Amino acid sequence: MAITDSEIADVLTAYLQRYPQEVGQLAEPVRLLTEGQGFASRRTFPMHVTAGALLVRDGGEVLLIEHRAYGLTLQPGGHLEPTDTTLLGAALRELSEETGIDPELVVPLSAHPAYVEFGQVPARPAKDEPDHYHLDIGYAFATSAAEVGCIQESEVTGAAWYPLELAERLVGPRIARAATTPAGTV
Known about the structure:
Blueprint: H1 5-18, H2 27-33, E1 47-57, E2 61-67, E3 72-74, E4 77-79, H3 87-99, E5 107-108, E6 115-121, E7 132-143, E8 156-163, H4 164-171, H5 174-180
Parallel strand pairs: 1-7
Antiparallel strand pairs: 1-2, 1-4, 2-3, 2-8, 5-7, 6-7
Helix pairs in contact: 4-5
């Protein structure tokens, strides 16, 4: 069964209970979620949900991708699929699809998101998408043995491991949460 607006709202509510200092910056997606418009679909505007993955290797490196469409260095992630049943599972699927990482070598650090970001995305006329917003819900994962495999070249131009400090400079403070999420809170 596909992820519902109610499930998304529950995850966001629990996240904001853990990080109340972010209530103001996430007020608009909270408001939109009360309207119940099918936010798991990438065809829902002005906002839809995406899932991200912060994968830490041996506590010292984070896996980042070079996003083809945006030309940015980011954590792996993307749009939800109708077959996704959880946001955590969607994040793991995106991680594996984009980087070729074997999901059997990856462990979620928590059942709770490590970050939630609400950001504007420019129009993509080729995909018939107007300017809109992504509510990116990201989870922290760990590995000790995973290596980049065959990348998803339609969406990613590269994937590599970055030292935590450099990854945080490139991507932002959400990287720190990947490194500090306590293991075993699944």
